[in-house]
């Protein structure tokens, strides 16, 4: 690989809030800089001085500077960001797939924290927490009223420290405290199983440092259980992105050697690069090709790729590459449309800058920025349609997103009416009892899109959406 890829730096191609950003191993410091606008910098210094001396109460100097940097970067686009010490640590934890905590996947129910699943082998797993347990208190703090992110922050902490969770177990109708010692947790971004004889499902929820190894291990398990695999479903729904090299590796698992997977193009010479389906473009350490253990059948097994509006960035790279080479059928709904690359540059030992530096392109040269991957077969979320799809935020909905032209977005009146109807329906759904709500259960026999994917692999009729249409990039007023 080119030496420039080995110079310290991270490239990020991830989705927005709630979604973890994607990162790779490329970038160099810019060799030269354009002349600085001295008059404007003097004005900035003057404003800083006035705020410092004239504001109604004393203001912390460091906070003023930090906020100025944050505002400058945030004004560019939705994905550029200044990282202070805390956010930089959280960013690195998110891309490594490791954090210190108790080890549970959670959601919210009736204002409480619900245990979706304890991570196997974690402190919570060993303590006996079960799916559907409700957490009512974290230490002395009542959970009711806390946001999910606040609850997560309280459960995380330093290694070998203790946290006491008060659990309400509905099926036993009792509450009890559980004291758990925090430790480093390794999250699982890969799940998979044989759905029925001859057909398997593998899901990537994120592209992390361990994703490629976990993917290879899971595929080995699947082929051991079903040596005569007739079809595979690669599930990328709600996958917000992750490491760019991991996306290249997953693509390479299915594609011929050395074909182009994705290319990038930006202002810097180092931003113009082509990633190929070869080990030097995705192996992270010495030890050879991480894909070498994959069964040979992976290159030819019939493939369906499931995507939706939550599939962003690195997952769009995979879907776009497989679609361009006709390696599999893309099924589901139009993806998020995050087609830009972010470079993460350290500004010191514990702060950094995430800056949009390029757009990325599928092998055929298509940019999916603010558009996304359009499935070959559009399929609704459920048999009854996709009533809430219109409410899901995509890149084109984000303020200041990259696109052609400047100015305010031209609103589509028809879309606005559909949004109003969907909001009303969502409010009605929220009033129903939890057991009556239609929550997607990925990987089960109730997973409508997965059932249609298996039908596609078997050559059976697929229930194609009657209402879903391609959403094109919205024009902007000049």
UniProtKB/TrEMBL annotation:
<dbReference type="Pfam" id="PF03572">
    <property type="entry name" value="Peptidase_S41"/>
</dbReference>
<dbReference type="InterPro" id="IPR036034">
    <property type="entry name" value="PDZ_sf"/>
</dbReference>
<dbReference type="Pfam" id="PF13180">
    <property type="entry name" value="PDZ_2"/>
</dbReference>
<protein>
    <submittedName>
        <fullName>S41 family peptidase</fullName>
    </submittedName>
</protein>
<keyword id="KW-0378">Hydrolase</keyword>
<dbReference type="Pfam" id="PF22694">
    <property type="entry name" value="CtpB_N-like"/>
</dbReference>
<dbReference type="InterPro" id="IPR004447">
    <property type="entry name" value="Peptidase_S41A"/>
</dbReference>
<dbReference type="InterPro" id="IPR001478">
    <property type="entry name" value="PDZ"/>
</dbReference>
<keyword id="KW-0720">Serine protease</keyword>
<dbReference type="InterPro" id="IPR055210">
    <property type="entry name" value="CtpA/B_N"/>
</dbReference>
<comment type="similarity">
    <text>Belongs to the peptidase S41A family.</text>
</comment>
<feature type="domain" description="PDZ">
    <location>
        <begin position="88"/>
        <end position="156"/>
    </location>
</feature>
<dbReference type="InterPro" id="IPR029045">
    <property type="entry name" value="ClpP/crotonase-like_dom_sf"/>
</dbReference>
<keyword id="KW-0645">Protease</keyword>
<dbReference type="InterPro" id="IPR005151">
    <property type="entry name" value="Tail-specific_protease"/>
</dbReference>
């Amino acid at each position: 690989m080119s030496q420039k890829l080995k110079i310290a730096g991270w490239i990020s191609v991830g989705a927005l809030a709630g979604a973890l950003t994607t990162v790779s191993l490329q970038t160099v410091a810019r060799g030269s800089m354009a002349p600085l606008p001295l008059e404007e910098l003097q004005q900035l210094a003057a404003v800083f001085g006035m705020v410092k001396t004239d504001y109604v109460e004393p203001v912390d100097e460091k906070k003023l500077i930090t906020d100025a940097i944050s505002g400058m970067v945030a004004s560019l686009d939705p994905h550029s960001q200044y990282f202070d010490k805390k956010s930089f640590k959280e960013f690195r934890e998110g891309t490594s797939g490791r954090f210190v905590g108790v080890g549970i996947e959670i959601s919210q129910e009736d204002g409480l924290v619900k245990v979706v699943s304890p991570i196997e082998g974690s402190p919570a797993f060993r303590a006996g927490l079960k799916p559907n347990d409700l957490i009512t208190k974290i230490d002395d703090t009542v959970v009711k009223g806390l946001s999910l992110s606040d609850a997560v922050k309280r459960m995380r902490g330093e290694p070998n420290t203790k946290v006491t969770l008060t659990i309400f177990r509905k099926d036993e109708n009792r509450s009890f405290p559980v004291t758990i010692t925090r430790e480093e947790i390794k999250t699982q971004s890969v799940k998979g199983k044989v759905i029925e004889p001859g057909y398997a499902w593998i899901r990537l929820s994120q592209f992390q440092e361990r994703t490629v190894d976990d993917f290879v291990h899971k595929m080995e398990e699947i082929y051991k259980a079903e040596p005569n695999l007739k079809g595979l479903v690669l599930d990328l729904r709600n996958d917000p992105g992750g490491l760019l090299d991991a996306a290249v590796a997953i693509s390479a698992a299915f594609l011929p050697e050395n074909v182009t997977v994705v290319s990038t193009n930006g202002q810097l010479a180092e931003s113009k690069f082509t990633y190929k389906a070869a080990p030097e473009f995705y192996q992270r350490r010495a030890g050879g090709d991480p894909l070498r253990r994959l069964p040979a059948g992976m290159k030819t097994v019939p493939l369906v790729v499931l995507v939706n509006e939550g599939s962003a960035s690195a997952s769009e790279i995979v879907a776009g590459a497989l679609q361009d080479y006709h390696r599999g059928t893309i099924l589901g709904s139009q993806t998020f449309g995050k087609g830009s690359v972010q470079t993460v540059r350290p500004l010191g030992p514990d702060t950094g800058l995430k800056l949009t530096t390029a757009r990325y392109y599928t092998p055929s040269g298509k940019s999916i920025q603010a558009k996304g991957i359009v499935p070959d077969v559009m399929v609704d979320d459920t048999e009854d349609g996709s009533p809430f799809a219109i409410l899901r935020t995509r890149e084109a909905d984000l303020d200041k997103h990259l696109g052609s032209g400047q100015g305010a977005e031209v609103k589509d009146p028809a879309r606005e009416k559909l949004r109003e109807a969907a909001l009303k329906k969502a409010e009605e759904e929220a009033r129903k009892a939890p057991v009556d709500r239609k929550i997607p259960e990925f990987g089960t026999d109730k997973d409508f899109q997965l059932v249609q994917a298996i039908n596609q692999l078997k050559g059976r009729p697929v229930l194609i959406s009657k209402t879903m249409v391609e959403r094109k990039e919205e024009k902007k007023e000049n």
